[in-house]
WSC domain-containing protein (Rhodnius prolixus), 196 residues
Amino acid sequence: MYNISELPSNFVKSNYLGCYSDNGDNRLLNGKYVTFMKELSPEFCVGYCYRSGYRYAGVHNGTQCFCGDSLNQGQSKLRDSDCDIKCANSRFNCGDYSEEDHLIGCFIDNEKLRLLSALLMTITDKYTPKLCLNIRLQLGYKFCGVEYGQECHCGNKRPDSSLEVGENQCEMPCPGDRSQKCGGAWRINVYSTDKW
């Protein structure tokens, strides 16, 4: 979150207000919103909001820039380390996201016809849905999924709704945070950045 009412020469570092919570139903900034898939950086977002006449700018989810004239008081300030999504074009971070905001559902996967077939990575240590979402974000895929407790799948095609099953079938704990679920045996939790 940045205050840009007066734009100094180093407008990103000197106007940084901190990391704040945010959600789709109660946004921290309620002005203009735009997605910059490859070119987002805090500098770019601050400049965009400043040129659009807004007082505040905020980056979210590594790709989204929000502008506004006031801060929604319903949100709370977090630790800076909670906003740890890297920007595509910057050494700075570009916010964070909630995995649950992006969960589409639990789906049946198949060895012969994978739901998300563009990329498969096996990560056995410190694996969580957030790590898989970060991989998807950095590589530019539209969807990702966690399966079998250690697999991260990516792809650009949304799974067919006829393959969706109950969340209770995607109950395998994640090695990086056992309170989170990382799919199951031939069951995959699928996430998307488009679900708001």
The mean pLDDT is 84. The CA atoms of residues 36 and 55 lie 20 Å apart. DSSP finds three helices and 14 strands in the chain.
